[in-house]
Amino acid sequence: MPRPKVVVVGGGFGGLNTARKLARAPVDVTLVDRTNHHLFQPLLYQVATAGLSVPEVAVPIRGIFNKQRNVKTLFGEVVSVDVDARLVKLGSGVSLPYDYLVLAAGARTDYRGNDSWEELAIGLKTATDALNVRHRILHNFELAESENHEGRRKALLTSVVIGGGATGVELAGALSELSRRVLLRDFRTLQPSMVRVVLIERADRVLGNFHPKLSKAGKRQLEELGVEVLVSTSVTGIDKQGVVLGEDRIDSGLVAWTSGVKTVPLATAVAAERDHQDRIIVGDDCAIPGHPEAFVIGDMAAFKSGDGWLPGLAPVAMQQGRYVAKLIRREMRAARNVDESGEPRRSPPSRKPFVYFDKGSMATVGRSRAVMQYRGFHWSGFIAWMAWLVVHLLFLVSFRSRILVLYEWIFAYVANRRGARIIEGPWSINGRPGEANAPLPEQKIGLTGSPPQRPLTATDWRQNGARRRPS
Question: Of the CATH numbers 3.40.50.720, 3.50.50.100, 3.90.550.10, 3.20.20.80, which one belongs to the domain with range 115-257+360-465?
Fold first, then answer.
């Protein structure tokens, strides 16, 4: 009897937990991902602000499963899923038949219908995004050091973060610390009064999914770091010189977008019912209705819980991944329990519905500053910050990553410096606000644009992974 085939699409939190929990199960697992690494996205903002390097938050997927012999990893992009024929097709032309399918391909940055903004505001979903933010802020400071025009210098030293959720708050706080406490010590003509970091949120408060008391605490902590917090403010336009807020504008050298995500295009290629965000609606067993062998988890799934829908958070994806793996193992055990005629001795076990265990929410605002809530309890300040550090260290996939990240955190706390302050890639040293800012004619972008999106090369990984001596 051939072993059942399980195809897992996506090496994020959901897909990774599914595949790991199927270790030594009587199934053959094929994990497909567009990249060759698992990326710990909660710490991407620290890569963007020169606190960490990419290899410290990214682990090669093949390395994770090198001892799990029933898992095969494929590097590629899924272009179609036929749930009736039970067939997954890759862009390379490879077809993967399956007995069980787990779709966990994650999400992408949502510019809310303003596709032209994608070239002007940098998201924070991939390693390339984080490096683009880092290169932009470092590049802007280098240009500002030799800029004599006051208006252009002011624009170069202004950073705008759009979106006041946890990611936006963490990025804005880290940008302010990097700009005011780290970089200024290395420049002779720049002063703290020249630096400006602005966080824009269209709702009436930042950290909208937190208790109002914690939202207020988070806003206060940001302002203590020098961040200007604009709430109830909508961005009506983004151009090469900055952002437009109705009749006002902010000239800015960096615009970062953290105002929401949407599901990947693969979700629309699956014959299934979707919600207004194009997430695939699943049943209480995380499976597509009518297709009990096809599961959707994480950001791709619309899972109804009580009166609402589960958010696209890492803990949700992780718990769903473990649940699906456990369910598959149970059904495999039942399928192997047959009599002499090959008939099952008992009917397949009924599926218990997935229940999400909410372990609370937390966000760090800066050095010794954070907010945290758990089952009606609320904390802010140093205690919440320490809890945030411990939780994120434990969530890192590899022991190596935990050691490296802990070392960088201790170094940054004691020395108040950032080690990953290297500019590399296709950047011009002669750019000025409002001018083309790239070395090649075919790669012209404006001041607030991100560099041309390209895959990370081996050189990128070596340069971002090397230990750097602070200047």
Answer: 3.50.50.100
